Amino acid sequence: MGDRQELERQLEAAAADLHALLAGLTEAQINWRPGPDRWSIGDCVSHLNVSDRAVLPALDRAIESAVAHGWKAQGSFRHGWFTRWMIRSMEPPVTRRFRTFPVFAPVDARHDAAMLLADFAATRAELRERLARADGLDWGRTRVTSPVSRWLRLPFGGYLAFLLAHDRRHLWQARQVRNDPAFPA
Q1: Where are the domains positioned within the chain?
Q2: Domain 3-178: CATH class, spelled out
Q3: Residue 162 and residue 85: Cα distance in Å, rounded?
Q4: How far apart are CA 155 and CA 3, in angstroms?
């Protein structure tokens, strides 16, 4: 399976996971926090939506640069050790917590399941559109610069794999909230 197809499969899996996670929850349950410094299920999903939206311009710049340079290639791309480490650092189960950069902070509001799902679907459609635009480009040479630091650069395919691992991380985190013994009935 090619890189694009695998990333699209992971996008679909995250959407299915989110639908299952939110199924039957009330607004109170979606917004319940297990502690004052902990995120609700809604906060976790909002963070994913905000994060992915913040990265879209960086993906656009990477695609435009690859097109301008004529960097074309087909097939799968291998990630270097740093990219593999970054992807692994996001995978659940979470063993290490990271501070969230302000640009990626969840929307500070009461969360509604329908709105969260619609926003999630919209941001994933944007990611799929970037995948389609990048088809045929050299995903190994094409670099995406993080919106938080110009020093953090990953290959295009690696950056998308990192984003999808980040999805799994926070969907896992949201599931931990739902499984909390004090979660409202």
Answers
A1: 3-178
A2: mainly alpha
A3: 10
A4: 12
